[in-house]
Design a protein that fits this description.
The complex is a heterodimer of chains A (290) and B (391). Chain A is of the alpha/beta class. Chain A has helices at 20-28, 40-53, 73-84, 92-96, 101-111, 126-139, 200-209, 226-235, 244-248, 254-265, and strands at residues 4-15, 63-67, 117-121, 145-152, 172-181, 189-197, 217-220, 270-276, 282-289. Chain A has two domains: 4-181, Peroxisomal Thiolase, Chain A, domain 1 (3-Layer(aba) Sandwich), CATH 3.40.47.10; 189-289, Peroxisomal Thiolase, Chain A, domain 1 (3-Layer(aba) Sandwich). The model of chain A has no long low-confidence stretch (mean pLDDT 93). Chain B folds into two domains: 5-225, Peroxisomal Thiolase, Chain A, domain 1, CATH 3.40.47.10; 235-385, Thiolase/Chalcone synthase (Peroxisomal Thiolase, Chain A, domain 1), CATH 3.40.47.10. Chain B contains twelve helices and 14 strands. Chain B has a ten-stranded mixed beta sheet with strand order 5-4-6-7-1-8-14-13-9-10, sandwiched between helices. Chain B has a two-stranded antiparallel sheet with strand order 2-3. In chain B, strands 11-12 form a two-stranded antiparallel sheet. The model of chain B has no long low-confidence stretch (mean pLDDT 95). The chains are: A alpha/beta (290), B alpha/beta (391). At the A-B interface, helix 3, helix 4, helix 5, strand 3 and helix 6 of A face helix 4, helix 5, helix 6, strand 5 and helix 7 of B.
């Protein structure tokens, strides 16, 4: 049990390569602030998190955990172009925004919160590792309310000409966020588990040996291939599947977006989310929506 | 019960040496090695100083291939693991905490030198996300634990250290390898020049005539464990991280959030400000940052400010790597019996009202504060101790 009570969740899914003006229009629905020196990644972070917070009042010492696979890479390409192609020094704010933690900063500034601020990544399991770090602060009581989210621009490394990746998933911009607190009162759900395993066998054993499996839906993260997903389906008592990748598309932060979408859509139900990284480490998240 | 987290192994390469022993000797003798690099891609008619790793021809920036960066990274990580004498089984159960600002940009630039393909073409081919480098270290060393890549600008590897130590303290993990890694790249060098942040000749933190930071490159790695291997191993007592929302590039000059970070770290460590033997300041040498940091130290320590040292004039501002690299330089100097001086400091700035150590100061055991700040409002403070008998 993590004690991470979800008080609100969001999943903003945007069309790949959509005009940034449209993103700014979307953001204006949630905040009157004008953001001039920001890029697509920062806009996505702001939209997802502001959608999540919506009309909740938020404590001043709320922490921000921004997880991402690729961060501000598109901005980095722009700055490299300024140096290598335009043969000039980078524009100051273009350079500063290559540092992806600026997105967490603009979010904290916009919300007026001064808690911890982290931007973290972990190949294929960024969101899960972000929860690990949040749990560390949670246990130490140094954080009692937090915004944790996953943000990625439609993946640079995988985008094909038709905006679909090799698995056929629509490439999208994604920003999925959760406002979590220690209090259960007023919560709409809870992260019941966030567990890591060195390999698939240990993960399967843990799932099999649980005394009270409760979830009624399963979701597979982007790194679980078709063949492996089929094996899981036969091994798990639960067969109902939430195919968020097929329904909403793929980005580096698909797991955060998919789980955010689940919390918004599936009241009274629970989800087992399974994913892995390229080294064969597995991670399981269990979410219950009240 | 809260466990300790001890630094049981370390390794580092930077402009003044490729082992902690070499680096400490250079620090003791104030031996500094600085290169002067030009901006050929932008056609600028001047150079700026840079603390470059320069052992042989292979180290020249124009000769560096993508393999060069992996070699430095893997060999530093392996040396830290060797010093901690980790068995294969222990290594397998280790977790990796990686902090960097440039990530794989140097690799991209290494590839770019070899081809005429467009920037975006090569970058898309070179980069597979921030977590890729940590995964490569895991694969190379046979580590099977979890890996965490921190990208919080200049506090990246300080935060990596903070979370690794906290997880060990809580008994969540037994052992961690923490890496700070930032090697020369044009993006950073040209980027900071674009901000007009680079000093023209000399690194002078807190000095009245300071005129900016001087970048440097380094890779440092430490092994953290729940028990010490030798009595002199440094122990992490506590730390804190907060976000100053004053500005994306600078902190509130009153130093309120920076001081709050220091105070929270002291509270986590369970000690009073008076217990701090010395402070390693972040001290970038920029106008605003130094003034803010001094104001924050005054807020925290009042009139009883312990000795303050700035180690960037030895190795440069190694951006995301500075958390781990300055920690190694500082703690290894303390182990050798001295608090390092601050080369370059000459004239006191009345606004800062602080004179850092100008000569090495002999010291024994003690509790020490290490401060780090960065773009995006990041503030991180670590408290470490080498007092014996408290483990």
């Amino acid at each position: 049990m993590t004690g991470l009570y979800i008080h609100s969740a969001s999943a903003f899914i945007g069309k790949a390569h959509a005009d940034e003006k449209l993103l700014k229009e979307e953001l204006r629905k949630y905040t009157p602030d004008n953001f001039r020196r920001v890029n697509r990644f920062i806009l996505l972070a702001l939209i997802g998190a502001r959608q999540c917070i919506h009309d909740h009042s938020i404590a001043g010492d709320t922490a921000v955990y921004l997880t991402t696979e690729y961060g501000n890479l598109s901005n980095t390409v722009t700055v490299l172009d300024e140096i290598y192609t335009a043969h000039s020094l980078p524009k100051p704010f273009s350079f500063i925004n290559t540092m992806s933690n600026t997105a967490a900063f603009y979010l904290a500034q916009n919300l007026g919160i001064r808690g911890r601020s982290l931007t973290v990544s972990s190949q294929n399991l960024s969101f899960q590792r972000g929860i690990d770090l949040l749990m560390t602060d949670w246990s130490a009581c140094s954080v009692t309310s937090a915004l944790i989210g996953g943000v990625d621009v439609s993946s640079l490394s995988e985008a094909g000409g038709d905006d679909r990746n090799a698995r056929g998933w629509q490439m999208v911009d994604g920003s999925g966020w959760f406002y979590v607190r220690t209090e259960r009162k007023g919560a709409c759900g809870v992260f019941r588990e966030n567990r890591s395993f060195q390999d698939g066998a240990t993960c399967r054993k843990w799932i099999r040996d649980r005394k009270e499996p409760f979830e009624d839906l399963v979701a597979f993260g982007p790194s679980i291939g078709e063949k492996e997903a089929a094996e899981w389906r036969t091994a798990l008592p639960t067969t109902d599947e939430f195919d968020y990748l097929g329904q909403y598309g793929y980005c580096g932060s698909a797991a955060a977006c998919g789980i955010g979408m689940f919390v918004k859509r599936f009241r009274g139900r629970s989800l087992l989310h399974i994913d892995r990284n390229q080294l064969g480490n597995y991670a399981v998240i269990e979410v219950e929506v009240f | 019960m809260k466990k300790g987290a001890f630094v049981t192994g370390k390794a580092m390469i930077c402009s003044i040496g490729e082992t902690p022993k070499e680096i400490v000797e250079a620090v003791r003798d104030q031996r500094i090695r600085m290169a002067h690099l030009s901006f050929p891609l932008a056609g600028l008619p001047y150079t700026r100083p840079y603390y470059l790793i320069m052992r042989n021809e292979e180290d020249r920036p124009e000769n560096r291939s993508d393999g060069y960066f992996s070699k430095i990274l893997f060999s530093t990580a392996a040396a830290a693991v060797n010093e901690a004498e980790l068995s294969d089984d222990e290594l397998k159960e280790t977790h990796l905490f990686f902090g960097s600002t440039s990530m794989d940009v140097p690799v991209f630039e290494g590839n770019h030198r070899k081809t005429s393909a467009s920037v975006s073409e090569i970058f898309l081919r070179s980069s597979n996300g921030y977590g890729k480098i940590a995964s490569a270290v895991m694969e190379r060393l046979g580590i099977r634990g979890c890996n965490y890549t921190f990208t919080t600008a200049c506090t990246s590897s300080a935060n990596a250290f903070l979370y690794a130590a906290s997880m060990i303290g809580q008994g969540r993990i037994e052992r961690a390898l923490v890496i700070g890694y930032d090697l020369f790249n044009n993006l950073g060098f040209y980027g900071f020049e674009g901000l007009k942040s680079i000093a023209v000749t000399t690194y002078r933190p807190f000095d009245r005539h300071r005129d900016g930071l001087i970048l440097g490159e380094a890779c440092g790695a430490v092994v953290l464990e729940g028990r010490n291997r030798v009595a002199s191993d440094f122990r992490f007592l506590g730390g804190a991280n907060l976000c100053d929302i004053y500005s994306v590039t600078s902190h509130d000059e009153e130093g309120t959030t920076v001081a709050e970070t220091m105070n929270r770290a002291l509270a986590r460590a369970g000690i009073d400000p008076g217990a701090i033997r010395a402070i390693k300041a972040h001290a970038t040498g920029t106008e605003n940052n130094d003034r803010t940091e001094c104001a924050a130290m005054r807020l925290t320590f009042g009139k009883n400010l312990p000795p303050v040292t700035c180690v960037k004039p030895f190795i440069g501002h190694t951006v995301g790597a500075c958390g781990v690299c300055e920690l190694i330089l500082f703690t290894e100097s303390l182990k050798a019996g001295f608090i390092p001086s601050t080369p370059g400091f000459r004239d006191k700035d009345e606004e800062c009202n602080l004179t850092p150590l100008m000569e090495n100061e002999e010291t024994g055991e003690g509790v020490f504060m290490l401060n780090y700040f960065g773009f995006g409002g990041n503030c991180t403070t670590l408290i470490l101790s080498n007092k014996r008998g408290e483990e």
